[in-house]
Amino acid sequence: MSAKFQILLPVDFPCTSNSDIVPKVPRELAIVLSDGSLSATLAATLAQQKYRLVLARIVMGDLKRARSADAFDRQVVHFKPYRHHTLSVETPKKQGGRDAAHMIDPRAHDDLGHRLTTLLPVMAIGFQLAAHYEANSVHIGLRVGRDSADLARASEHVQIWNELVQMTCGRPTIELIAPVLELERWQVVDLGFQTEAPMALSWDCDTDQPEPCGTCGGCREREQAFLRSARADPTRVAAAPVTSATSR
Length: 248
Ligand SMILES: [Zn+2]
Hints:
Blueprint: E1 29-33, H1 38-48, E2 52-60, H2 66-79, E3 83-89, H3 111-133, E4 137-140, H4 151-168, E5 175-177, H5 185-194, H6 217-228
Parallel strand pairs: 1-2, 1-4, 2-3, 4-5
The structure holds zinc ion (ZN).
Zinc ion binds near residues 206, 207, 218 and 219.
């Protein structure tokens, strides 16, 4: 007797092999909030192992961050997401014309508080996109590290977002996921290599120069991360031009 069976697997079945017998069940969508940074690039790579991506770049303020936009466009080419968006959030300006979103002083007493406050509208838009696309998760590259005293507070922040959306917004299936929250910077690099994340396409420099400046906070932290993981930073090796990134 020959019968043709169609095996229906749950969409979160770990499809690591035998791709021929896995039925063509569309993978669930995940919103990935990306600023083009190393952490966000790893978060997108981890999300893509399980989901189809909707990549979203939320621009805070009206600063023209062309280099960061270029990193995002390169990642769109790499990840081939189902959809991608660049959305801007207008932020209040303080005297002198600087955007509130870029007023974070690294010496400030409560750096995590500033970071989370800045991310509030980003998270909110992520959830709105998840509702729009009927995606079940929103992924963000928020990272504080395991040894940081901030980890408990950052974890609670994520949990409160989930309760807010699931319990009061009537979206019980949407979950905020911060997959690199507990990682140290060098571990982001390490896991990036293990998962073949496109780290050559990421951008952490605080400036908008064609090449990383090497001296800003973002560059120094990135350099330390690669040094500690004993790896070479691929952005220092190759930087291919973007060829076909278009907004949909
Ligand atoms: Zn820099």
